[in-house]
Design brief:
The chain is mainly beta. It is built from two helices and 36 strands.
């Protein structure tokens, strides 16, 4: 019996879908499966292994246990997507063809020997939530440099042993322990900079068999501490010279006080401000940015801050003491070097239409040692986030108060910078003529 027109069309559509599925499978993926509860992996024909989902990757006792073992020779690039929280022990052990690894910020732990023996791995990022680099995690890899975030407190045994292409390493002030053999046999490693005031563990042979003439730079006030802790390397230990880059501040008025304001960030060193400069962390309450003073003036490594000074170029020095300030609610991020960004993705400090605050940044480059507020931290649609001191009250005596029925031609804005068409009628806190105003 002949097919009618609709049947023929349906058959053609089904055939097209089957052909498309076959093409996608053959073009983009030819192996896959699961690698932990809530996680899946897929290996494309271009050699990219992608791990997706939510949760922790399985740990593996032997290299042959990981699910991509039979396809290991085809893996050239690894992408760990947002949502993954843990990279398993021995997850990529000995996969020598891997050249790059991209790890999402959601990952907070990387298992022991996870990338050990990846002898062609030249590019890898360590997420800012990692606190410990486990033993042999990057043993024998091929990177020439590595950025260790200021969240890391421990560098385990043999973490970077036999990384023979590694030429320099910058160890942030957060690190308190460097294990045995951590950088052993890194034969081209010529420069090590350690920003921590001291360590609890000075690992044996940590820098054994590095490049001839290799130097270990430490804070000047801590030089003798390190020479005592690492007697075998005492002749290689020398003081860091120089000072942090001085930020440029801009005059602005906040709460009737005119001063010079700027942001600052250092991803490795603790930095202390001079006596004429006040250091603030920033937290968000609703859509207001609240300033909280850091009493010891020490800017903790990896933390963005706001600076208020009587000078347009505040003086900063490297801190040789451990910071005591509370940075737990601080929402500012930062960059060490000038970094490209997407226009509209961040808020930066500016003296905007509503006064001093963080406003949407339309530029495409963040300056060196600058702090910023990520757009993801702010309520959608906010044009600006106005600054207030955390201890500033909103009592009747301390705020400008507008009685009902009083009008003015000046514009009104919500705290998050949204322009209103007219004077608000709802009770609340607003911005009017650069001041906080309570409508009661």
């Amino acid at each position: 019996m002949a097919m009618n027109r609709n049947q023929r069309q349906c058959g053609m559509v089904r055939a097209a879908f089957i052909l498309l599925a076959m093409w996608l499978s053959s073009t983009f993926a030819w192996a896959g499966g699961t690698c932990g509860e809530g996680l899946s992996w897929v290996l494309g024909t271009d050699g990219t292994l992608i791990i997706s989902g939510t949760g922790a990757m399985d740990d593996y006792q032997y290299a042959a246990d990981h699910p991509w073992h039979d396809n290991r020779s085809s893996i050239q690039k690894v992408v760990i997507n947002e949502g993954v929280t843990h990279i398993g022990n021995l997850a990529f052990w000995g996969i020598s063809n891997i050249t790059s690894v991209s790890i999402a910020e959601s990952v907070t732990s990387i298992g022991t020997q996870a990338f050990s023996g990846c002898t062609h791995l030249a590019t890898v990022n360590i997420p800012s939530g990692i606190t410990s680099l486990e033993s042999s995690v990057f043993y024998g890899c091929a990177m020439t440099s590595i950025t260790i975030p200021a969240s890391v407190t421990s560098i385990g045994e043999s973490s970077f042993q036999d990384c023979k292409s590694l030429t320099s390493v910058n160890i942030p002030a957060s690190v308190t322990s460097i294990g045995n053999d951590a950088f052993r046999n890194c034969t081209t490693l010529a420069s090590v900079t350690i920003w921590a005031p001291s360590l609890t563990t000075y690992g044996s042979y940590a820098f054994y068999n590095n490049a001839s003439g290799r130097k270990i730079y430490v804070l000047a006030d801590c030089e003798n501490t390190y020479k005592t802790g690492w007697e075998s390397f005492s002749s290689d230990i020398t003081a860091i010279t120089g000072t942090p880059n001085a930020p440029t501040a801009t005059s602005a008025t906040l709460n009737a006080e005119t001063a010079y304001w700027c942001t600052y960030y250092n991803g490795s060193a603790n930095v202390v401000a001079d006596a004429s400069t006040t250091v603030y962390t920033v937290s968000l309450s609703s859509t207001a940015a609240l300033l909280k003073e850091v009493s010891d003036k020490i800017i903790k490594a990896g933390q963005g801050v706001v600076l208020k000074s009587t000078n347009d170029s505040p003086t900063l020095t490297y801190a040789s003491t451990i910071p005591t300030g509370d940075f737990t609610s601080n929402v500012l991020k930062g960059v060490d070097i000038a970094t490209t960004c997407t226009a509209g993705d961040n808020y930066v400090l500016a003296n905007g239409i509503n006064g001093l605050g963080f406003y949407i940044y339309s530029g495409t480059s963040l300056g060196a040692n600058k702090a910023y507020l990520p757009k993801s931290s702010v309520n959608a649609g906010a044009r600006g986030i106005i600054l207030f001191a955390e201890d500033e009250t909103t009592s009747v005596d301390e705020d400008v108060r507008i009685e009902k029925g009083k009008t003015t031609g000046a514009m009104w804005y919500t705290i998050d910078g949204r322009k209103l068409q007219e004077r608000p009628t709802q009770k609340g806190l607003y911005i009017h003529e650069g001041q906080k105003v309570i409508i009661k």
